[in-house]
């Protein structure tokens, strides 16, 4: 048994519209939005009375997808500090390759993003940084040099 591909990463957010604006500002494309509820999702999630809204986004080449989810019931819970540092165990960041890291950071700041550290040069290969986005997720950015 082997996997065929990774389909998407899911992020639970408290403000779906703000999260959509953040990630579409980064260049992702909104595929669609839908309310989800019913016994099947209760059984998959292991929760009762699930009622969520989701938005599916894809990256420009169409191979990477992101699911943004807002829970109406049961309410979302915080399992860690909202602004957990980069060394916190668990899913910590999602990385995007960008063509202009400075312009991208400026766009994300305009949509509520916060630069975690600073933009740094890694050898002669990349400029890198972390930006904190919706629900405290760390969005890593990489601009390839040369």
Please name the defining characteristics of this protein.
146 residues; 2,3-Dihydroxybiphenyl 1,2-Dioxygenase, domain 1; MMCE/EMCE_epimerase; alpha+beta; 18% helix; four-stranded mixed sheet; metal ion binding; 2 domains
- The number of helices is 3
Structural class: alpha+beta
Shape: globular
Q: Secondary-structure element sequence? A: EHEHEEEHEEEE
Helix content: 10-25%
InterPro entries: Glyas_Bleomycin-R_OHBP_Dase, Glyas_Fos-R_dOase_dom, MMCE/EMCE_epimerase, VOC_core
Protein name: Glyoxalase
Keywords: Metal-binding
Domain VOC: 5-144
What does this structure look like?
- The radius of gyration is 16 Å and the shape is globular.
- It has 146 residues and is α+β, with helices and mostly antiparallel strands.
- The chain folds into 2 domains: 9-73, 2,3-Dihydroxybiphenyl 1,2-Dioxygenase, domain 1, CATH 3.10.180; 94-144, 2,3-Dihydroxybiphenyl 1,2-Dioxygenase, domain 1 (Roll), CATH 3.10.180.10.
- The strands form 2 sheets. Strands 5, 6, 7, 8 and 9 form a 5-stranded mixed beta sheet that branches.
- 18% of the residues lie in helices and 38% in strands.
- It has 3 helices and 9 strands, in the order E-H-E-H-E-E-E-H-E-E-E-E.
- The mean pLDDT is 91.
